[in-house]
Automatic annotation (TrEMBL):
This is PD-(D/E)XK motif protein. It comes from Streptomyces rochei (Streptomyces parvullus). It comes from the Bacteria.
């Protein structure tokens, strides 16, 4: 996220706060952003009677409308408003879902940065281009997440939160799971591979002979996150929203989630599945750990064999684990375990 985007986000939040306090039962209350486009017409933000947020970009009435109704929650439409006693035409970028307000601010900030850059393009076309770009970035691949994938992402995000809390400098770049790298996290003091279990489960699936191979000259720990399904637990969208305030680049975070198959625009589909973290345990991967890695093979895999995966029973290892609770903290910061 650029410095200019952050500045616009800060200004937007300040405007929403003031406008919500001034909200009326009818119409849209507006305020100017101090940014002009076209013939020195000021860009406005507004809040309507429902509480929906609007970015209002002045356009030439003679131009053909540029609109976007692909989604029910974030739209671009042309509207007429009376501002300071004068009827004016705007391109209206509006969000109809309060739970997407932070994402909407990210999108608006990107639009305002582009509008301020003065590319020479029509302002409404600029807004449409930015929305299209974000929509493509956030578009999930395939269908909605199944239960196993949902729990898997939840477990990785729990670990990401601990890394961001213990060592903000590592930040989002430590999370390598979305890029399909062998290990889910790469920190300066070693790699972490995350597996998620239910209340009574003890078996995890290992994908590939490299997944439990320590990095050259480094260490690897298998982080096991045990989740309980509870009615008062945390849903995946709640965890995502909690992390948004901790990541430095919310756009990069949203894109990483999309690569995992999760789109914030699908959040409502996941709100009924809630989890409580029952335990987090770390198992060091060393020569005695039961796993299949390249060094354990007498030779290379036959070329006809690919996508090797296997099940690993942790029922005997987890009760003996000493890295749990506060003892895990050194894993999430730069440095070596003592």
């Amino acid at each position: 996220m650029t410095r200019h985007s952050e500045a616009w986000q800060t200004r937007l939040r300040a405007h929403w706060s003031v406008l919500n306090a001034r909200r009326t039962p009818k119409g849209v209350v507006t305020s100017g952003l101090g940014l002009t486009v076209g013939d020195d017409a000021e860009v406005l933000v507004g809040v309507d009677a429902r509480g929906d947020h609007h970015l209002l970009v002045p356009v030439d009435v003679r131009s053909a409308p540029v609109e976007d109704y692909q989604a029910a929650y974030i739209r671009i439409q042309r509207c007429t408003l009376v501002v300071d006693g004068r009827s004016r035409i705007f391109t209206d970028v509006v969000c109809h879902r309060p739970d997407l307000s932070e994402l909407f601010d990210d999108i608006l900030a990107a639009m305002l940065v582009e509008l301020g850059a003065g590319s020479g393009q029509r302002p409404d076309i600029v807004c449409k281009h930015v929305l299209d770009e974000w929509r493509e970035l956030l578009r999930r691949r395939g269908g909605l997440l199944g239960d196993d994938a949902l729990r898997g992402i939840f477990g990785e995000l729990i670990v990401l939160e601990k890394i961001l809390t213990a060592s903000p400098g590592n930040g989002l770049s430590a999370w390598r799971g979305p890029d399909r790298e062998p290990h889910d996290f790469r920190l300066n003091n070693g790699d972490l591979e995350v597996k998620t279990l239910g209340d009574n489960g003890s078996t995890v699936r290992i994908h590939g002979i490299g997944q439990l191979e320590p990095p050259t000259g480094g260490t690897l720990h298998l982080i096991v996150v045990r989740l309980s399904v509870t009615s008062d637990g945390l849903a995946l969208p709640d965890l995502v929203e909690r992390l948004q305030s901790k990541v430095a680049d919310r756009k990069a975070f949203a894109v990483a989630l999309a690569r995992c198959g999760y789109s914030q625009m699908d959040a409502d589909h996941y709100r009924d599945r809630r989890f409580t973290v029952a335990q987090i345990t770390a198992l060091p991967i060393d020569e005695a750990f039961p796993c299949i890695v390249p060094s354990s093979l007498s030779g290379v895999l036959p070329k006809e064999v690919s996508n090797l995966s296997y099940s690993l029973d942790l029922s005997l290892l987890l009760p003996l684990a000493t890295l749990t609770g506060h003892a895990l903290t050194p894993l999430f910061v730069n440095g070596s375990l003592s």
